[in-house]
Design goal:
The N and C termini lie far apart (170 Å). The protein has helices at residues 2-13, 17-149, 155-168. It has one domain (17-168). The chain is mainly alpha-helical and 182 residues long. It is rod-shaped.
Length: 182
């Protein structure tokens, strides 16, 4: 049995010239088939893969550049938005201050109008009261004169007596310093 093993393994150690030629022929045919059919396809597949990778890298670079541009644009818009917001707030403050001034001015004007109207009302009421007092004084003077003289006075006598009585009265105290002539 060892002879069989030795004989069967010896052909690997001592090559035969025929076997070597056939091995070289099969190798050359295999190499020819590989060079003509397989290697171009492998090369094409590798070229396609390399091109896809290059395209992916280019696309990634373009995307990064676009992202950088978008980031710069976003920051610029954000800065503009903040500036606009500050301007809006400032305009709102100015508008509020103007509205406040206007409201105060309007309130002051209404207050002045109300005070003026109140003064006019007081003056009108004072004149009305003074006129009423004058009528009462005239009536009392006529009545007192009739009682004292025991006669009815003529209209001319009544006017003279009323003017004398009214001229003796001091209405300036009642009208706040404005003298009144009947």
């Amino acid at each position: 049995m060892t002879d069989v093993l030795v004989a069967s393994s010896s052909w690997l150690i001592t090559p035969d010239v025929g076997l070597t030629i056939w091995t070289l022929v099969v190798f050359a045919i295999s190499l020819f088939i590989l060079v003509k059919a397989v290697f171009p396809r492998i090369g094409a597949a590798l070229d396609t893969r390399r091109k896809a990778i290059d395209d992916s890298i280019d696309a990634a670079e373009r995307t990064r550049v676009e992202a950088d541009q978008l980031l710069v644009e976003y920051r610029e818009r954000l800065r503009e938005a903040r500036q606009e917001a500050e301007e809006i707030v400032e305009r709102a403050r100015q508008s509020a201050a103007a509205n406040e001034r206007e409201a105060r001015s309007e309130a002051q004007g209404r207050r002045e109008q109300m005070l003026e109207q109140t003064r006019r009302d007081i003056e009108a009421e004072t004149r009305r009261v003074l006129d009423e007092i004058v009528r009462d004084v005239v009536e009392l003077t006529v009545a007192a004169t009739e009682l004292v003289t025991r006669k009815v006075l003529t209209e001319e006598d009544q006017r003279r007596l009323v003017q004398d009585a009214v001229s003796e009265l001091d209405f300036s105290v009642l009208s706040g310093g404005a003298s009144r002539q009947p």
